[in-house]
Amino acid sequence: MTNTNTRIKRLEKLAADLKQDHLCTQKELAILHGVSERTIARDIQLLRDQGVPIDADRGRGGGVRVDRNWGVGRLNLSYIEAVELMISMAIAEQMGSPLFLTNLAAIKRQLEASLSPDKRRKVSGLKSRILIGETASTDVQGGFTMTDLTVQQQLQQGFLERTSLRINYRSENGDVTQREIEPHYLLLNYPIWYVLAYDHLRDAPRTFRCDRILSTTSTTNQFKLLDKTYFQQILEWHKSAK
User: Fold this and answer.
1) Exposure check for the chain: N or C terminus, fewer CB within 10 A?
2) d(CA 197, CA 76)
3) Can you give the residue ranges of every domain in the chain?
4) What is the number of other CB atoms lying within 10 angstroms of the CB of residue 156?
5) 145-203 pLDDT, tens per residue?
6) CATH class of the domain whose range is 138-241
7) Which residues contact 94 (CB under 8 A, 6 or more apart)?
8) Which alpha helices (DSSP H) does 25-148 contain, by range?
């Protein structure tokens, strides 16, 4: 099962790489993905069999890429890309943005229709784990900093795959502690993101500001999703404190 998941992820990444404007040789793609050229050749053929129109330039220095004319009318989003787009739209909708949302319902219907029933259920489940609160107070926003990109990526991975993370966390008073957390829910008090997590160190539910997470290490320790009511006291506090 692990090998299958690895290949699926590689195919999704390969499809995204092939959508770039420049040509990539099979050798370059093999190095980029850490596999042999023969494996990349098989993956490219599999994508072709799935209907992805991949052009090949066999001349000197040639390469492969998705047909340039395969445009917006035939979006070929990977599962992760579709998840990110649908969650972003859900966030914009919940925040009540007054601009550029006129056609949002139609876009969502088309995007959902492009997913299999199983993937639609997974996306729906993920959206229910992202909570939108009030805009953070001026005092809270005063200490806001951008979250490190690597931290963002590993946090997202742990959230999507329901695997715990080992983190170094800086508290409000500057103390740094090491924790292992289970990222069950994400809360946005714009522009501050919080993780609602089970904290193994405290053996209790805790909330962590994403911009105070200094570093993360992924684990393979999967967790069972806790009901939102488990974090109700924390949510009530955030609602009052913002």
Assistant:
1) N
2) 33
3) 2-70, 79-128, 138-241
4) 15
5) 888 889 999 999 999 999 999 999 999 899 999 999 999 999 998 889 999 999 999 99
6) mainly beta
7) 132
8) 26-33, 37-49, 79-95, 104-113, 117-127, 138-142
The amino acid that residue 132 corresponds to is I
| 208: confidence class by pLDDT, cuts 50, 70, 90 | very high
Cα–Cα dist 216/148, whole Å: 10
Task: State how far the Cα of 106 lies from the Cα of 13, in Å rounded to an integer.
Answer: 27
Q: Three-state secondary structure along 113-179?
A: HCCCHHHHHHHHHHHCCEEECCCCCHHHHHCCCCCCHHHHHHHHHHHHHCEEEEEEEECCCCCEEEE
Q: What integer is the mean pLDDT of 59-68?
A: 66
Angle formed at CA 158 by CA 160 and CA 76, multiple of 5 degrees: 40
CATH 1.10.10.10 fits 2-70, yes or no: yes
**In this predicted structure, what is the pLDDT of residue 70?**
58
- pLDDT confidence of residue 168: 97
State whether the Cα torsion 86-89-93-94 is positive or negative: positive
- Whether 139 shows a pLDDT value over 60: the answer reads yes
186, 233 Cβ separation under 8 angstroms? no
What's the pLDDT score for residue 203?
96
At 7, list the tokens: 């290949």
SS3 state of residue 205:
strand
Tokens of 194: 């919080």
User: Among 52-56, 78-82, 198-202, 205-209, where is mean pLDDT lowest?
Assistant: 78-82
Q: At what angle do helices 2-18 and 79-95 cross, to 10 degrees?
A: 70
